Amino acid sequence: MVVAADPYGRVRTCPLPLRAGGAGRNDRSHASGGTVIRLTIAVAAVLLLVACSSGSEPTPEPSSEPSSGPTPSSPSSSAPAVAAAPIDRRLAALEERYDARVGVSLLDTGDGAAYSYRGDQRFGFASSVKVLVAAELLRRTGSAERAELVRWTQDDVDAAGYSPVTEAHVDRGLPLLRLAEAAVRESDNTATNLVLERLDGPAGLTRGLLGRGDTTTVLADDEPGLNEVSPGSPANTTTPDAFVADLRALLGPEWLTDADRRLLLGWMSGNPGGDPLIRAGAPAGWRVAQKSGGAGPVRNDVAVLTPPDGRAPVLLAVLTTRLDPSAPYDDALVADAAEVALGALEAS
């Protein structure tokens, strides 16, 4: 069973088998430091729906600080064991070296082998969430809507921040499908906001994720506000376990068609921005389809990895944040954490 936290920090178990461990600059979108999260009424309504879906018992307020160590999840009796203790020690050493908190969730979709370190703890997702934004658009739209020409203004670009694709097409616009690709492949902020508009805004995405079984991830803002996280608030956060569960759902037939799944994984592949992250920590020859995110002290990467020997995909989420909020993120921390987790999987 997965041990996961709902948007209020309440621990829940879910049917995805994960093995737990023990102790456990913006990605081209610029967020202002120290800004308090602004929850819209719509997002507050989604949080209420999430609370209702999680059970009838009283809902505690989220804690203002993460727990001092990871919460173990229950091992599956059928999945191969991943030796957790050595991984725990190596990840704890990385946390000390980088003065950071690290969350890792890993699942081998072939044999069910899994590992989780701080997997039920909340982290800001930053631009990594854009893969879920694009996936939800693909689920909801057909070819005609995807081909519609979308227009925007220079003011939209200026407000959103990093927007290399949309800034170059202010005068001409782009089809909706190209905007979804730009949100994932180039991490274009304005493109992300335009796609979110088609989903009924951040709250619309959160409701969509709830419909897919994700009762944890909460998107409260568009760009650049989605990078803003306040202690004790679930807004603009997820957990490593929840993100891996979303990646698992993306590989299944309920969320995307085969053609749309191939399209999305193509958008996640071959992007140079992902080279120093999970891809750098993956074994030689593994194909990595990923989406990174980063803002201030936060640096993340989520990935679908395909081994070269015909094995089923491996799913990995590495979410990190430096303990000093003024410290810049470090790509090497993500790569090192990925190398530890994937190396242990290979050795199991």
TrEMBL record:
<dbReference type="InterPro" id="IPR012338">
    <property type="entry name" value="Beta-lactam/transpept-like"/>
</dbReference>
<dbReference type="InterPro" id="IPR000871">
    <property type="entry name" value="Beta-lactam_class-A"/>
</dbReference>
<dbReference type="GO" id="GO:0046677">
    <property type="term" value="P:response to antibiotic"/>
</dbReference>
<dbReference type="GO" id="GO:0008800">
    <property type="term" value="F:beta-lactamase activity"/>
</dbReference>
<feature type="region of interest" description="Disordered">
    <location>
        <begin position="219"/>
        <end position="238"/>
    </location>
</feature>
<feature type="domain" description="Beta-lactamase class A catalytic">
    <location>
        <begin position="103"/>
        <end position="320"/>
    </location>
</feature>
<protein>
    <submittedName>
        <fullName>Class A beta-lactamase</fullName>
    </submittedName>
</protein>
<dbReference type="InterPro" id="IPR045155">
    <property type="entry name" value="Beta-lactam_cat"/>
</dbReference>
<dbReference type="GO" id="GO:0030655">
    <property type="term" value="P:beta-lactam antibiotic catabolic process"/>
</dbReference>
<dbReference type="Pfam" id="PF13354">
    <property type="entry name" value="Beta-lactamase2"/>
</dbReference>
<feature type="region of interest" description="Disordered">
    <location>
        <begin position="55"/>
        <end position="82"/>
    </location>
</feature>
